[in-house]
């Protein structure tokens, strides 16, 4: 008999319960669907497409070694999975669960169709340590604050990682049609902007495991301090591997937790707390599928944020960081956004971060916070504009972590930083990059006369943001 295993954000053969089930006592065939058609499914950004191309090549190699063929298809997933299962006459279809709204809708359709056709359909927990519906407050509602969420969750055990399958059967029939990966054109052609990505990253499971080992043997020990220093390799840089499922949180969590002894207790706790933030973001997305579109705190709907090509979203004529600026003939919203995207705001830490992002597809967490805050609070731009830019340029662009973090920075999210706590990008630089090693790596001209003045006055724009926030509170 044959089983179909449908790969999604879990591009690995180890610790993959769906793959294990498919290969247990039948011949497994694997399928990946590039779905840009199903309603509501967010199309991948450019950097993500680049990563996916190499990730699928890597997965194909890993599956080859197990004698499991990988089929590639493009289109609306529900129809394709059903069709491939039928063509294979598969007895069962397996996958690991996803938690976004439109994705769950697609999965429900696949399940219904499979069962209608008399196939066994089964899904597994593989991408989150804890299922969102299992973690609730005493009142049976989702947690809105991280600390109590993590207190509850961190006391729970999570399972050990699973081995890769050892298939005993091979598929011997005729394989349904598969598309060519090159035909999907996931890689940029002209201009080829991916040189910096190639230099910075090796997508795939083996590279992920190597990074993980290096991290637990090295930077983990100093993680509580090192993680705030963008100039050093103080963090694990595992985010794209977790995003694409080359590594599971179970694998990362256990590898880190195994270092609890040897005076690493605090480092392990801090790191697991960051995995906890990942869980918290995904639980938010599960409960609020429109996380990337809607303010979690609706009072922010009236905030006079600007977007290029659009009038201010708020309706009052009160102060807004950018409105004020525009009144003085300052740069338009479009010009401010462009300067931010290109790392030409005249604020060194922000520019360094944005250039790191553009070149490597990744940005240090401390700098993400500062740069996002600058866009939203000093430049007065709607957080969704920044979220979309990150979505397009990050190799770890994540459907939950990205919008949840943007809402956290903007003040509109769950357990968000209070709006009035506005990062000062200059103080942040002095504190976390005191010798300007990070800044001079990415903005070598920052101390020279060529470097522009800040596009907005940091203090004035901060004041204007606070006034806009005050007006919002008075109106509510
Ligand atoms: P480490 O410090 O080594 O952390 C380990 C892992 O924990 C990370 O790989 C990640 O999976 C998780 N993690 C760490 N911090 C956070 C956090 N604050 N929220 C959620 N998970 C976290 N992370 C993404 O994975 N994808 C995104 O699209 C993304 N967008 C962000 C946007 C903004 C505006 C901000 C402020 C943060 C964003 N983050 C995002 C969170 C965080 O910046 C990255 O996860 C982190 O920088 C990745 O580097 P690392 O793997 O070295 O992290």
UniProtKB/TrEMBL annotation:
SUPFAM superfamilies (UniProt xref): Cryptochrome/photolyase FAD-binding domain, Cryptochrome/photolyase, N-terminal domain
Stored PROSITE patterns: DNA_PHOTOLYASES_1_2, PHR_CRY_ALPHA_BETA
Domain of life of the organism encoding this protein: Bacteria
Record domain Photolyase/cryptochrome alpha/beta: where: 1-129
Annotated coiled-coil segments of the chain: none
Sorted UniProt keywords: Chromophore, FAD, Flavoprotein
Family assignment from sequence similarity: Belongs to the DNA photolyase family.
Protein known as: Deoxyribodipyrimidine photo-lyase
